Amino acid sequence: MTTNNGPVITVLEKALADTYALALKTQNYHWNVTGADFFQLHGMFEEQYGDLSGAVDELAERIRALGQLSPGGFKAFQALTQIEDGDGASSPMDMVKDLAKGHETVSSLLREGVATAEENDDVATADMLTGRLTVHQKTAWMLNATAAR
Predict the structure, then answer these.
(1) For residue 139, what are the contacts with CB-CB under 8 A and spacing of at least 6?
(2) d(Cα 149, Cα 17) in Å, to the nearest integer?
(3) What span, in angstroms and rounded, lies between the C-alpha atoms of 115 and 38?
(4) Do 117 and 126 form a contact (C-beta atoms < 8 A)?
(5) Is 2 strand, coil or helix?
(6) What is the DSSP string of 91-102?
(7) Helix, strand, or coil here: 50?
(8) DSSP state of 30
(9) Which end of the chain, N or C, is less packed with Cβ atoms under 10 Å?
(10) In which band, very low, low, confident or very high, does the pLDDT at 2 lie, cut at 50, 70 and 90?
(11) Rounded Cα–Cα distance for residues 26 and 22 (Å)
(12) CB neighbours of 57 closer than 8 A, spacing ≥ 6?
C-alpha cells in the first residue's frame, strides 16, 4: 500500500475509463462489422472486448483495494476517458485502425501509470499496469498488422 496513493488512484481511474470505453467501442465494432473479413474480425473483436471487460473489473478492484470508490457509469467514464466513440458504420479496416489507435492511447497512459506507481512505491499496481501494457501493445501490433494488407 502506498503512503500517498492519490496520483496512483488518478491513473487507475483514467485507465479504468479508457479501458471501459475501448471495450464498448470494440463491442460496437464486433456487432457492426461487415464484408469479406467479417468472420475473422467479428471473432477478433469478440476476443478483444472480452479481455477488456475482464481488465475493467481488475482495475476497479485495484482502486477499491487502495481504499477508494471506483468510478462507474457513463457520465463518470466520459469525464475521464480519452477514447472517442466509434462509428459502427465505418469500414472494417477503419474499425481496425481506430481500435489500434485506441490501444496505443491506452498504452501511453499505462506507461505513465507504471512510472507513477513506481514513484509511489506501489509495486502491485505497477505490476498490474505492466501486464495490461503488454496486452495493449500486442493488440495494437496485431491490429496494425491486420490493417497493413
Answers:
(1) 48, 51, 99, 100, 103
(2) 31
(3) 39
(4) yes
(5) coil
(6) -HHHHHHHHHHH
(7) helix
(8) H
(9) C
(10) very low
(11) 6
(12) none
Amino acid at the residue 81: T
Cell of 108: 501511453
Q: How far apart are the first and last CA of the chain?
A: 46
What are the grid coordinates assigned to 68, written together? 477508494
Residue pointed to by grid coordinates 474480425: 41
CA gap 113, 64 in Å, rounded: 17
What is the DSSP secondary-structure string of 19-65? HHHHHHHHHHHHHH--STTHHHHHHHHHHHHHHHHHHHHHHHHHHHH
* Contact residues for 2 (Cβ-Cβ < 8 A; gap 6+): 8, 66, 117, 120, 121, 122, 125
pLDDT in tens, 45-99: 999 999 999 999 999 999 999 999 999 999 999 999 999 999 999 999 999 999 9
Assess contact for 6 and 63: CB atoms under 8 A. no
Per-residue pLDDT reduced to its tens digit, 124-134: 999 999 999 99
Neighbours of 65 (CB within 10 A): 12
Which three three-digit cell numbers place residue 107? 498504452
